[in-house]
Write a structure and sequence with these properties.
globular, alpha+beta
Length: 346
């Protein structure tokens, strides 16, 4: 049975990956790090043409192979315009919400390699000046980046090297509490990348060869909808997305559990795969919940829409406050690892 030390390793990997900015479209550094970590565990890993990481975890039956998918891309923003006062207009990357981005520290990555600090603020953000502060609708038309540089004009900002199309990354603010709660932006889905690294380390340390060929695809465009739509190896009959499990009103899952999704916005997941995931949870004693997600889409649905003839499923550690300042728990990591072990019978 997989031990708690692999959950600890998974969090260690997650914490490091969270420190590498990687919104959709700006993921090369994160992908290179992920590739190196899988290789350090003894597994062959390659960067795909699209920029993801495809890993071979080994296995015997190549005609009934399993693909595990997670994503390293996150939410963020792009410079959409430079205002006359030197502040920046933003366009979101993925489902970044202006309400959640307000008052956060950001970094602007310029094409020249310079990184410039700033803050995402409501336009006219001083409460003592703006009498409509509380009533103002937060959107990407009403928030802006205030640069932490001496700028007062568009030319000043441009002299720093800032251009339209530059990437804007939000501070993750990663924390682990004494009670085991994990708080950070972008646990969706860097927590699952860490979990798959923890699973890979378990296989490597114990010299385990799965009975079925197993691949990992760490995608880099999930947050914009097409991450899993390529790079499916021959022989794959099932794909399981290891992504965040939803926690909120009307759902059963908590941050301490592993969530098994039966249906989301894209429709039902494979009845057979969902049943096997439930059996795997029961067999390994994993604390799990089965839920229907009201507003959600995953990598494996993109995989199916690409035309691949496979069965699909979705699991993940429970995450609260998705696409905001998210929270999970070490128990959620452990329970997700148990389901993976039970599913592959390792």
């Amino acid at each position: 049975m997989i031990g708690q030390n692999y959950a600890e390793y998974a969090w260690e990997m997650t914490e490091t990956l969270l420190s590498i900015d990687s919104p959709s479209g700006y993921t090369a550094r994160a992908a290179a790090w992920v590739k190196e970590k899988f290789e350090s565990l003894g597994f062959a890993a390659n960067i795909t043409t699209k920029g993801g990481v495809l890993v071979d975890l080994g296995g015997v039956n190549e005609e009934d192979a399993l693909l595990l998918e997670a994503h390293a891309d996150t939410l963020g923003a792009m410079v959409a315009g430079i205002k006359g006062n030197g502040r920046l207009r933003l366009s979101p990357l993925g489902g970044m919400n202006a309400n959640n981005g307000e008052a956060e520290n950001v970094w602007v990555y310029t094409r020249s390699g310079k990184v410039i600090d700033g803050t995402c603020q409501l336009c006219n953000a001083s409460v003592h000046v703006n009498g409509e502060y509380s009533n103002a609708k937060r959107s990407f038309d009403t928030v802006e980046v205030v640069l932490d540089e001496d700028v007062s004009s568009a030319d000043d900002a441009k002299k720093l090297g800032i251009e339209v199309g530059d990437i804007v990354c939000f501070e993750p603010r990663t924390r682990r509490t004494p009670s085991g709660y994990l708080k950070s932006r972008f646990l969706d889905d860097k927590l699952s990348v860490g979990i798959l690294l923890g699973f890979a380390k378990y296989l490597s340390d114990d010299g385990i060869v799965p009975s079925r060929k197993t691949y990992v695809h760490i995608t880099v465009y999930e947050e914009v909808g097409h991450g899993g739509s390529a790079s499916v190896p021959a022989g794959v009959t099932e794909a399981i997305s290891v992504d965040m499990g939803c926690v909120g009103d009307g759902l059963n899952c908590t941050e301490k559990q592993v969530s098994i999704c039966a249906k989301d916005s894209g429709g039902p997941y494979s009845y057979e795969v969902v049943g096997k995931l439930i059996d795997a949870a029961k067999k390994t004693g994993a604390d799990y919940a089965v839920d229907v997600y009201p507003y959600y889409g995953s990598d494996v649905e993109a995989t199916l829409r690409s035309g691949v003839d496979i069965r699909h499923g979705l699991i993940g550690a429970g995450v609260y406050a998705s696409h905001g300042y998210e929270r999970s728990h070490m128990d959620g990591i452990m329970n997700t690892l148990k389901v993976l072990c039970g599913y592959l019978e390792v």
